[in-house]
């Protein structure tokens, strides 16, 4: 056979490279995202809103936290456009760079005083918006990297690896905060210690870029190119022809988002708030500060290093059950498995005050149960959402669904929970009901959606 007639097999990504590249990218992205989330509770209220009451400072900090969620749908459209037109690889590199640069620059922001009284919070808003744009494009690309390169009967298993980046990034970020808070004085931590995780993100970005630059395009996207089925406007095509799976995917993710941000940002605020005015005054006196009792709402009164450690223990369960969810979703189907997990989230919401009432032991049990449910619901999403869409709009469709859900689920979760807690004068009954309502809406979406276990992702092109 002549050399001209020989068929050259297309290059494929190795299994190890796919799994590591999908996980390292989301680990970096979520590390950066959580560094902000933790700082928004521990530092930013004091640093950027020094003249506000404690509860208003926290609400202002969380309002800026929510800016990223507003940016995420825009990021999904921008990165989805290039991901479906030019390819997954370059888009993933760009999203990682944007997140890394925005997070790194946050570490240089000055406190809101003097000329920076307005400029510092404004710069924080801009950088937070950039983080949201980046994460809007990152998740879907990482999910496609894993699932489009997976054997047909292992997509849910491969899909758990980019999902694993969430607990890994969370653990790394909060471990650094725990070490800093236990080794530095309160003054040192507020002055410069909180900046260390933001600087450290640069190292992780370099590792992520090195791995991703070695990737080749998936066979699914190569098929789209070979058959000349690249669409001119992926977003327009998605909204015109695939709005039903987009809407369904948005609500399928709803309970997952609400659960996660209640378990992380809200519980960190609630858990570390003094349980009484007396405790607050004693804690402030020991730190050489003045306690402002105006607008005080009682929490659990657990010191911050201890509660961060409790969160890390809970997130270990998040990671373990994320990995276990893949084989279970592969065996029983994504839809059926997620229906049962969402029923579990509904029950957990109704039982919320049994866990997050007085007592550190009960709170630890609540964190373990909540994060276990989080792993079980989050793990299958990286396979389920992409499988709802054909290859030529898969990046855009899954990204828009995932990130629209962030607007209605994640963005208001911490803010609404704190408002309900404040309105209840320390009671978290309303918070649990809020989670239960989100679970009901997700159940409705799941019942109205087909299972996608047997979809052929390479042949599913329109």
TrEMBL record:
InterPro entries: MFS, MFS_dom, MFS_trans_sf, Sugar_transporter_CS. Its main location: membrane. Coiled coil: none annotated. It is found in: Cell membrane. The chain crosses the membrane at residues 18-37, 57-79, 91-109, 115-135, 156-180, 192-213, 247-268, 307-325, 337-355, 361-379, 400-423, 429-448. Residues 18-453 form the Major facilitator superfamily (MFS) profile domain. Keywords: Cell membrane, Membrane, Transmembrane, Transmembrane helix, Transport. It is a multi-pass membrane protein. Pfam families: MFS_1 (PF07690). The keyword Membrane applies. This is MFS transporter. It comes from Glutamicibacter ardleyensis. The lineage of its organism: Bacteria, Bacillati, Actinomycetota, Actinomycetes, Micrococcales.
């Amino acid at each position: 056979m002549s050399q001209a007639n020989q068929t050259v097999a297309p290059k494929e990504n190795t299994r190890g490279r796919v799994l590591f590249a999908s996980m390292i990218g989301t680990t970096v992205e979520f590390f950066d995202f959580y560094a902000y989330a933790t700082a928004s509770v521990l530092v930013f209220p004091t640093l950027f809103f020094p003249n506000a009451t404690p509860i208003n400072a926290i609400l202002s900090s969380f309002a800026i936290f929510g800016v990223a969620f507003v940016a995420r749908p825009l990021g999904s459209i921008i990165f989805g456009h290039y991901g479906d037109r030019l390819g997954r690889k370059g888009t993933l590199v760009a999203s990682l760079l944007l997140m890394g640069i925005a997070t790194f620059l946050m570490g240089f922001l000055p406190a809101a005083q003097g000329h920076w009284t307005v400029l510092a919070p404004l710069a924080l808003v801009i950088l937070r918006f950039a983080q949201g744009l980046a994460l809007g494009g990152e998740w879907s690309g990482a999910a496609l990297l894993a699932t489009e390169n997976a054997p047909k009967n292992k997509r849910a298993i491969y899909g758990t690896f980019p999902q694993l980046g969430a607990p890994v990034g969370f653990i790394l970020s909060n471990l650094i905060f725990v070490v800093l808070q236990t080794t530095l004085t309160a003054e040192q931590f507020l002055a410069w210690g909180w900046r260390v995780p933001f600087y450290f993100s640069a190292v992780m970005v370099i590792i992520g870029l090195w791995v991703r630059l070695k990737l080749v395009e998936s066979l699914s996207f190569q098929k789209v190119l070979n058959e000349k089925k690249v669409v001119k406007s992926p977003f327009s095509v998605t909204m015109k022809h695939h709005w039903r799976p987009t809407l369904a995917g948005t609500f399928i993710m709803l309970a997952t988002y609400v659960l996660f941000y209640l378990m992380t940002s809200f519980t960190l605020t609630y858990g570390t708030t003094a349980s009484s005015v007396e405790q607050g005054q004693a804690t402030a006196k020991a730190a050489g500060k003045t306690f402002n009792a105006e607008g005080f709402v009682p929490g659990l009164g657990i010191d911050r290093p201890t509660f961060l450690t409790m969160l890390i223990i809970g997130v270990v369960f998040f990671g373990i059950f994320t990995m276990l969810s893949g084989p279970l979703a592969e065996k029983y189907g994504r839809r059926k498995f997620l229906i049962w997990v969402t029923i579990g989230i509904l029950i957990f919401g109704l039982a919320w005050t049994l866990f997050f009432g007085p007592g550190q032991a009960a709170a630890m049990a609540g964190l373990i149960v909540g994060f276990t449910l989080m792993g079980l619901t989050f793990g299958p999403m990286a396979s389920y959402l992409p499988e709802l869409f054909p290859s030529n709009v898969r990046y855009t469709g899954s990204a828009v669904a995932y990130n629209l859900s962030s607007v209605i689920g994640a963005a208001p979760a911490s803010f609404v929970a704190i408002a309900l807690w404040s309105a209840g004068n320390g009671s978290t009954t309303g918070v649990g009901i809020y989670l239960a309502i989100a679970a009901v809406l997700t159940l409705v979406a799941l019942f109205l959606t087909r299972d996608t276990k047997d979809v052929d992702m390479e042949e599913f092109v329109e």
